[in-house]
Amino acid sequence: MSNIRKYQAKTITEALAMVRADLGRDAVIVQTRKVNKKVLGVWGREMVEVWASDNPELESLRRPQKPVSSTSVQPAAEEPSRIEQLENEIQNLKAMIAQLARQGVAVVADNAPSGAAGGENRWTALLREAEVEEAVIRELLGSTAEASLSESVLQSLIADRLATSGAITLQEGQPKVVMLVGPTGVGKTTTIAKLAAQYALLQKRRVGLITIDTYRIAAVEQLRTYSQIIDVPIRVVYSSNELPAAVREFASMDIVFVDTAGRSQRNSMQIGELKACCERLGDCEVHLVLSSTTKTRDLYDIVQRFSAMPLHRVIWTKLDESTTFGNMLNVAFKHPLPISYVTTGQRVPEDVEVAEANKLASLVVGGVAPVQILTPAA
Ligand SMILES: Nc1nc2c(ncn2[C@@H]2O[C@H](COP(=O)(O)OP(=O)(O)OP(=O)(O)O)[C@@H](O)[C@H]2O)c(=O)[nH]1
Ligand SMILES: [Mg+2]
């Protein structure tokens, strides 16, 4: 049995002498601190208080670790002892948990078993972190037993929902016409430059470019510059009526890319103009270009408004700039359009890839930071 005893004296030397006399030379100091001793009911004289033990196993609780017999023992009177530090940490943790409970935040440890923390399992938490919508989570996990879930199972469940189309396929006897539409600045022109370069330079196909983005001089110049670098012909079209003639001029091409002006989905006149272009082009494949950095609500709105025209594919851009990818899954659930390509940077032509469901699913699952307990607001 070990003894822990308290000794009070005016100086540390006196207190240590008391310890030595009582517990012997091998005594272990557990804690030292300054205390104010009450004299006649008021705070009065400052005393040194030493807690000591004859149990050497308590050594680990002591700080600093110096033998009591040494006259060089310096009391850590002002510093909190290890025990005090631990007590403080426990108090802080208790306060943090209480605060989280008040805010209604479910605290989920990263390795918590399924069913932990108020009925929520870690896969639900992981999908939420990835910004997957609640309804999508429910539908995705609905029929799957929790016990049978793992990261790879979750990944394949997600992959099953991410339809992909593969690369643009060419057709015999006539050019394949591919039009990119989408909101402003998502990367339509850059993606056309990347794809045109891949088809022209790597696959040695005959490629033509048409732009109907004549609202900004810079926009025409941007595509013209790429056409010169890649060495493919370009036609600039000022109204939808001119489109069929431009396509006829490219009758000998394998593939014709049509670049369009970025449209606000909220401007129905602009959307109407794009729709007219689609109708003029007739047999053309429309790829809706979406940025993975756009939030889900806005993406829903964009897809819905652009659905005024026939949409055949989705291209996800700026994957390199996004930290969560749940929005791709959300859109796939609501509008199951096959994904053709993803882009991962500004470099032309390198930063474009044919979309692969498994890779995208692994981004949804793994692109998230580990679940962390948030620091409560002060
Ligand atoms: N980080 C990153 N930037 C990209 C990517 N794709 C395009 N960009 C950049 O996004 C910016 C806009 O690209 P554009 O190709 O001009 O976009 P757009 O959709 O044609 O724009 P508008 O014609 O104005 O509607 C440029 O700075 C591109 O370099 C990508 O995958 N990752
Ligand atoms: Mg553009």
Termini separation comes to: 44 Å
Number of domains: 3
Q: Helix/strand/pairing class, anyone?
A: alpha/beta
Report the mean per-residue pLDDT as an integer.
82
**What is the fold named in CATH at topology level of the largest domain?**
Rossmann fold
Which CATH first-tier class of the largest domain would you pick? Alpha Beta
Shape: elongated
Number of strands: 11
CATH architectural grouping of the largest domain: 3-Layer(aba) Sandwich
Q: Helix-strand pattern, N to C?
A: EHEEHHHHHEHEHEHEHEHEHEEH
Bound molecules: guanosine-5'-triphosphate, magnesium ion
The portion of residues assigned to helices is 25-40%
The biggest sheet, with number of strands, parallel, antiparallel or mixed sense and barrel status, is: 8 strands, mixed
DSSP strand (E) fraction?
A: 15-25%
Radius of gyration: 35 Å
CATH superfamily of the largest domain: P-loop containing nucleotide triphosphate hydrolases
Q: Which stretches are poorly predicted, pLDDT < 50 over at least 5 residues?
A: 60-78, 102-119, 368-378
Number of helices: 13
How is the largest sheet built, in terms of strand order?
A: 6-5-7-4-8-9-10-11
